[in-house]
Amino acid sequence: MSHDFLAQITGSFAMPAGENPTVAMIEAAYRHHGLNWRYINCEVSPENLKDAVAGARAMGWTGFNCSIPHKVAVIQHLDGLGESAEIIGAVNTIVRRGDRLIGENTDGKGFVKALRDIIDPKNRKVVLFGAGGAARAVGVEMALAGAAHITIVNRGQERGETVARLIDEKTPATSVYAAWEGAFAIPEETDIVIHATSIGLYPDVDGLPDIDLSTLRPSMVVADGIHNPPRTRLIRAAESIGCKTADGLGMLVNQGVIGIKYWTGIDADAAVMRQALLDLDL
Ligand code: NDP
């Protein structure tokens, strides 16, 4: 009987790493699809990142994720970037192509993939709350997916203006910054409302971004980046108005689906991965 004791290795470099549930989700997919692959969750400090990447190369890892604090710093150790990672200026997924390590960013791609189950971003008008790493990735990817116009609403003006300018200058979409002072009224012509700040993330489970909920219309799609808990106050409020919604768990799962596609070439079963996360009862 022939055996294959040599698994393909993928994983994650981050610090801290102990609370990252990605390993459970990815390995559930590997098992479900009968792949002899592993995903190793590693805690790597900033000063060890260079050696960790060299180690992954030396051991023939097929790819890995980078999370906080390595998403920008890892770029100098790579051999190239995908289009959106280049614009965003941050990488969360590294893919080995031949002997080159290429950086991709699946934060926004996962969001768009999940959103497409509900609405095609093409030609849509978008209001995006937040201007941190997640919002920047989501905004750029929505623009590359054909969104017509993106209004960036952020507490800090400078960060908000920077993201709006980036989208406006580096993608086909137009984008402007709008100040977030008091309850933000969603313009009537908006198709998609995206929340990508950290408001509502556990343990802030009662957090609700300051949006004038009376300006939400049932025709609008409301998406929240918060995955824990998935049913945020914003999602519940939008549902009660009759809006279609997309939760942050869909974003997280689809990032994993895209990562697995990059690494293995297979289309992983998103339902199995979502269930693996729900089973953790985060
Ligand atoms: P950053 O720290 O880079 O950005 C935080 C953002 O939240 C900024 O826009 C900040 O505004 C805003 N913010 C924080 N507190 C408040 C507040 N009290 N009032 C108004 N605005 C506030 O974080 P990330 O962009 O990396 O992550 C943001 C959220 O997205 C996280 O909660 C994370 O859980 C989620 N996320 C989800 C993913 C998924 O797969 N579902 C993937 C990645 C992230 P300011 O600029 O004014 O400080």
From TrEMBL:
It catalyses: shikimate + NADP(+) = 3-dehydroshikimate + NADPH + H(+). Residues 248-278 form the SDH C-terminal domain. Residues 121-198 form the Quinate/shikimate 5-dehydrogenase/glutamyl-tRNA reductase domain. Pathway: Metabolic intermediate biosynthesis; chorismate biosynthesis; chorismate from D-erythrose 4-phosphate and phosphoenolpyruvate: step 4/7. Shikimate binds at S67, N92, D107, Q255. The active site is at K71 (proton acceptor). NADP(+) binds at E83, G130, A131, G132, G133, A134, G225, G248. It is an enzyme of class 1 (oxidoreductase). Its EC number is 1.1.1.25. Belongs to the shikimate dehydrogenase family. Involved in the biosynthesis of the chorismate, which leads to the biosynthesis of aromatic amino acids. Catalyzes the reversible NADPH linked reduction of 3-dehydroshikimate (DHSA) to yield shikimate (SA). This is Shikimate dehydrogenase (NADP(+)). It comes from Agrobacterium arsenijevicii.
